[in-house]
Amino acid sequence: MKLKEHKENLKILGSSIALGESKKLNFNIAHLFTDTAVEVPVFVERSQKPGPTVLITAGIHGDEVNGMEIVREVISHGINKPDKGTIICMPIINVFGFINQSRYFPDGRDLNREFPGHKDGSLASRFAYHFVNEILPVADLCMDFHTGGGERFNSAQIRIERDNEDVKELAAIFDAPFTLFEDKIEGSYRETCAKKGIPILLNESGKSLALDKEMCKEALDGIKRVLSYLEMLNSNFEAPEERHKNVLITQNHWIRTDHSGFLHVQIGIHEHVLKGQRLATVSDPYGSKSHIVEASNDGYIININHAPMVYQGDAIFHISTETA
Prior knowledge:
four-stranded antiparallel sheet; alpha+beta; CATH 2.40.50.100; single chain; five-stranded mixed β-barrel; Aminopeptidase
């Protein structure tokens, strides 16, 4: 796909940044009770050569630290210093939630349901509004990094809308083990990008409040491949060769347990399983009962519940039902 090439100064958060310049900005719209400003760092790196602007973000949910680690490594390794164009990195968008190790904003709202926001709305809504109006407009491509919520461990995957061939092409280049067709969620960052015509790759990998170096490497390799495709990858790096078949999952569903108790998972993430295959057992705490959880169909395991105890009805495995 072809993205714009920008020669002019980048206007963002009241700053004007020329080609070849680097700048750390602070996206500051709120304060703690102590009147202490909450600063959200924004790292801008511009090559001397004109090119597209790529916005790389994480931490929309404050407890999804594996996504933050991915963007941190982009910065610490210098992957964000492009051969051409501009790379903007925001490792922790929801600093409030990060401080409290919480998914949510202090007003109890999920930031990823508040986009595009409102200037007179709740704190989360105001934050989303300023982000959409002061940062997002400069982006030609967005890459956003998440994890599963709670104890749910997501496979390394890219989520895209069904009808966008450009994004589908970029997802194949990113080359996560799986690409999922997922409907856009109302009020989400991804929905706002789609409405504004900005392509976005949403990566899921790992679970909240946990770091996973293998998942981080998967994502970093994907970022390098996309930047290389855009001719933006710093010459100090090489784009890793594709590692996966990159399975496109067009339909999926959750396998739920019919029993409560201790959950003993017996398969791994990314595995392909067969209908009727034993996936886990759920046992009572007294050693008298144990119930087998079987695969409902042939498919790939794209999420596993890592909770030690579950209630009947809890979702414990996310499995593909159709692939392309």
